[in-house]
Amino acid sequence: MTFGRTRHTALAVLAFALGVGRAEASPPSLVSVTGARVLVADVVRGAPADAAAVDLGPAPAVGGSRLIDRATILRALRAHAATEPEHLPEAVRVVRLSRSVSATELERLTRTGLGAHPLPRGAALTGVRASRGLDVAAGWDAVTAELPRLPRRAGALSTTALVTFRAGADVLARASVQVDLMLPPTAAAPELARGAAVTLVVRQGLVEIRVGASAGADADVGDTLPVILRPSGRVLRARLIERETALAEDGP
Question: Which of 2, 9, 23, 102 could disulfide-pair with 133, CB 3.0 to 4.6 Å?
Fold first, then answer.
């Protein structure tokens, strides 16, 4: 009997050492977040106030995940001298909440974004064509649409608008959407013609000086052009920042 009990005890000890008969470790719990950063409050239920806002790093991209273990949480809490919760998970898998934007909705958002400001060169929007929708991280609060620099010509034009989904200063997603424009005859002319009057802005530290000048070449806003100072005739390089205003790039 004694030998039987001893043998049974030895087998039990061996089984314990090998993990035989033990329940397998449970997989990490799954947590969905909407922000660009993961906070302790996202992964620890009922975290103390000073610990809840501790940053655990970036949230994963849409479609991906990130595993945050207990050691990572403890390091972050101790780095911020925050209260350590009584119960911490062994590991948490974090995923980013997303929202599916259909092609039709993307077209509508593109129209709205382009309509927020006058189109360059007096262009009129005649069509928007999104080839497909996309999945965007949830929580965006603004959608902008930007056009590339348009050519100096009149007539129909097809180009691509860059649509950007933002949450505050964070960019959540970008998409390219085809747009059709009609450029008026005036679009064929430069925004500033050679010989036209232009105000030259010269900046030195906190000092700003504005002087009269004339354009030495045709130019559009954003172009660098030679400007001729009046009445000296001196030529400086400048960048056209508004239709009739140029910022000097050379020294005084």
Answer: 102
